[in-house]
Amino acid sequence: MGMTVIEKILATHAGKSEVAPGDIVDVRIDARVARDFGGANVVKHMEQHHLEIHDASKTFFTFDCNPTGSDQKYAANQHKCRQFARENGIRVYDIDKGIGTHVLIEEGLAYPGSTAVSTDSHANILGAVGAFGQGMGDKDIAASWHRGTTWFKVPPTVKIVFEGSPDPHLTAKDIVLNLLNIFGANKLLGNAIEIEGEMVERLTFDQRITIASMATEMGAIIILLPPNLEVIRYCESRSRRKVVPVVADPDASYAMVHKVDVSGFAPRISLPGKPHDTSVLPREKIWIDSAFIGSCTNGRIEDLRSAASILKGRKLAEGVVLKIVPATDRVWLQCMEEGLLAIFKESGVLVSNAGCAGCAAGQVGQNGPGEITVSTGNRNFPGKQGQGEVYLASPAVVAASAVVGFITGPDQIPENPEKRVVERIKKRATGARESTGSVYRPVEITGRVWFIPRDNIDTDMIFHNRYLSITDVGEMGQYTFDNLEGYEDFASRVKEGDMVVTGKNFGSGSSRQQAVDCFISLGVKCVIAESFGAIYERNAINAAFPIIGSERINKLQLSDGDELYVNFETGEMHNISKDITLKSAPFSEVQMEIYQNNGLF
């Protein structure tokens, strides 16, 4: 009995003459990759278990999830990976390169018949060039780094035969969305897919990447496309080796064979929440707030040329934001050389450096609650690309929609697009209080002291900037002082009613209100310092959070745990534990007025 493409690749890399579905084989891996997402965990496993690198020349890092450096946890992980790479002679394709799976092909590390694993669930995109790629967890990747091989269960193969000719304007994204409409998310679950047919030979390199990239959303192990001459020549030029494509034997056995008439395919979109829940372009207007073109599915040069052809000479619809992220730096440079970047900027588009973008939470493309986005990504699971709703579509549909303001096709752009009418509704502010007359707030307080004898405690030490997206005061307290050395556990140990006493220039640095509100969240009664940063002082007063500045605070001889009495009206402070009294400046008239008003508002 003959073998399918995936069976041949696995057999060759397992040192076997043949394999069959269900066999578990130890597969030699040609490219073993960890991204910045998961990479630090791979390093952790290597170090904890004292594992050596099997072959550094086949071991790589690719930093694509957060190439903008906008997330400090990613930055820490990247640094950890870089250090490990230096120590072990591992090549790092850093934040300037782009999406790792694309980089593997560009750098000639993946080619027809080769094998690769990565901490990227879309590593099966390598099926676009007839290679075997799989996404795996960090333990799997660490094991492959150490052994050079990994175990794998040979999957059954399903053949899909394309018949007929599609509309010449149909995009590769439309083709794969039509396949999702037919097969859903689980009808081909756990199968490898081979796609054949006359039109497959005509698919360009970029189109193949788009189709292969959504195998995961179909529940498939991989979509394998037989390399045509363009793919073979490209891979030979990049890998500097003779490429012999792997083809299925004439008598190969398939779990199923499906014949699909592509002549009936039409442009489609995926509805929010489920990539496989697709629909033809809607007749009713679905107004959008933002749009995104990029990801491993549609960040190639053909995708961006398509978008540029629609955006040229046009402006984005009023109030719509379009973000474009090329898949790799080579694609970005092509955009510059071909003048596409100028077209994008003239239209009002934000163009980022290459990388994964929206579906990786650390980069441009995320949306907020209530925001409607049309995106070229491969996933629109709830929360994946933000907290709003995400429709999936081709680059042409996304670009056209960004110009018009609602989801539409490029052949339906009116000469003078209508403007979105937004009805203004006056809402009563959430949490607004009815006036109940004046409420007297105490001017005398007593509490346990946290004595922190340090100067220049800045707002990043109080409430780090990685938490600045938090707007709910109730959530802020848990992060208080977690960037102040020695006080990282402050939030878990402080008690409601405690006071903080510290040195000079407390709250210097940023203007962030959270550095005040985090204490309110924890129920801290007061902060006393020798002096305060100017902005911090205003923020505290306006929030009705009691602060007192006194250059003579050391005379109270305070220690951790002392009981302290404070009178805001007279300025008297009394260390009850040591029976020492100090007279400081009382609240000013403005501070007392705002304090008794429970805040500036």
Task: Provide the descriptors you would attach to this structure in a database record.
seven-stranded mixed sheet; 20 helices; five-stranded parallel sheet; 29% helix; Aconitase, domain 3; alpha/beta; Aconitase, domain 4; 601 residues
CATH architecture of the largest domain: 2-Layer Sandwich
Average pLDDT figure = 92
Structural class: alpha/beta
CATH class call of the largest domain: Alpha Beta
Strand content: 15-25%
Helix content: 25-40%
Number of strands: 25
Work out the count of structural domains. 3
Distance between the termini: 80 Å
Main sheet?
Answer: 7 strands, mixed
Account of the 3D structure:
The protein has 601 residues and is of the alpha/beta class. It has 3 domains: 5-263, 2-Layer Sandwich (Aconitase, domain 3), CATH 3.30.499; 269-412, Aconitase, domain 3; 444-596, Aconitase, domain 4 (Alpha-Beta Barrel), CATH 3.20.19.10. Helices cover 29% and strands 18% of the residues. The strands form 6 sheets. Strands 22-21-20-19-23-24-25 form a 7-stranded mixed beta sheet, with helices on one face. α2 (36-48) packs across α3 (72-88) and α2 (36-48) crosses α5. The radius of gyration is 30 Å and the shape is elongated. The model is unreliable at 429-437 (pLDDT under 50).
